[in-house]
Amino acid sequence: MHWTAIANYLAANWMEDAGVLTTVVGIWLTTRRKLICWPVVLISDVLYLIVFTAFACIPMHCCRFLLAFTLYGWWYWWRGMREVGEVRVVRLTLRNMLAGLAAGAAGSVLLGLLMEQIGAALPRLDATLMSYSLVASWWQTRKHTANWWLWIAVDLAYIGEYLYKGLQPTAALYALLVALAVLGLRDWRRAATAQIAA
After folding, report:
1. Cα 92 to Cα 147: distance, rounded to the nearest angstrom
2. What pTM does this model have?
């Protein structure tokens, strides 16, 4: 590929590329249970809010939920750090897991109706993935290891969707996010085991 073509591509897609970079860094920091992950993820949320709105991928209400979850996660992890000196993994009860999955299913239906009204590109798929992304985000803010299982499933589906929509850098990002979710699952399980042993 010619250098001019690369420069033109980067100039035309700088916001999506910046979103890719900040997301990778933010999620990697999350796998390490570092509090600084939240401001980095907040930057990526804002960048992707702009990118996704341009492609009619998700409605503004969902973006506000993601931003709210990011701010809440930042505060909740900070509070836990202040109290116990570290980000401690918390077990997800069966009842809360079932409630989260049911909320994801209900949200899929409701968001699907909303996305059909606003003319989303793939309303049912977008709604389902967004709804379960909100559940995974909530579980992540609450420091539940199960968030990584849900992110693996959601991110695999997102890869296909973004390839279909022509967002190749974002599809590549989600392939990397699957790998990071596997890493996060491993590291958080180890942390949970260490907490039990201690």
Report:
1. 9
2. 0.84
Residue in 7, 31, 28 with CA at minimum distance from that of residue 17:
7
Residue in the block written with tokens 């420069």: 7
How far from 62 is each of 33, 108, 112, 171, 188, CA to CA, in Å? 25, 12, 12, 20, 27
What mean pLDDT, rounded, does the chain reach? 87
How does DSSP assign 148-193, residue by residue?
Answer: HHHHHHHHHHHHHHHHHHT-HHHHHHHHHHHHHHHHHHHHHHHHHH
The set of residues, in sequence order, having a beta carbon less than 8 Å from that of 101 and lying 6+ positions away, is 135
pLDDT band (50, 70, 90) for residue 20 = confident
pLDDT band at 149 (very low <50, low <70, confident <90, very high): very high
Q: Can you tell me the distance from the alpha carbon of 189 to that of 24, in angstroms, rounded to the nearest whole number?
A: 21
